[in-house]
Amino acid sequence: MASPNANFDQISSSTLRAYLSKTFNDQIFNGLPFFAWMKKGGRYVPQDGGEFLVEPLMYGKNTTFKWMSSSGYDTIETSPQDGITAAQYNWKMAGESVVYSRMEEAKNSGRSQVVDQLEGKIEQAKMTLQDKFDEALFLDGTAEGGNPITGFGAMIDSSGTYGNINRSTHTWWQAYEEGTAGVLSESDFRTAVNTVSRNKPVEGKPSLIITTRLLAEKYESLVLPAYRTESLKMADLGFESLSYRGIPIIWDDYCPSATVFFIN
User: Fold this and answer.
1) Are 213 and 220 in contact (CB under 8 A)?
2) Span 3-14, average pLDDT
3) Over the Cα atoms of the chain, what is R_g?
């Protein structure tokens, strides 16, 4: 005979469910290797205030340099030197709500509580923030009236204004870009790494290469076995990755198609 309540038969009316976990498993959000990388190694720097965020920059050489004669009494130019400025950034803010009614609190409490619903909602909000932050890192910050953070779409570019500095006027502020269409090759990686390093093999060398899943798989299939080594740096963060000349290579779902970023 059919049960008067289709949602509960004899078993479900008298037996507790066998929950496999007392926490909410993430079935929606992807892993965020770039987010983890940003938080490691001093790339995430807390700030306690200020009207703007300011990054001091040195863009010029001292032009008074001169080789001296054996007399040691040569005249050295004493003209004032410039070559120092700063990039300026606005603060950005994000927010979201966690709504939890008294009725939900009453039902999800005591011995009847198998999973803490409020904790699940808070964790959901945290993961959403991470996901939205990861997405915005690949954009130019112009969406929603310019409210999002300024990502790679404006940061790693050879034109436009970034940090209140016009890159068309000040070419030293331009990022290296190669936009020639073609099949990905190992030589593309070599040229990019050497160009970005700018004769500074330590401080100038990229510390991360990030691309799409398609290009990451393409790189894995074509490069020489000597380059196909796993990056221990990313493994320490819980993510598998390849490496090129010691630089971790990761892929991200939000990375624009046909794009590889070399980040130093």
Assistant:
1) no
2) 62
3) 27
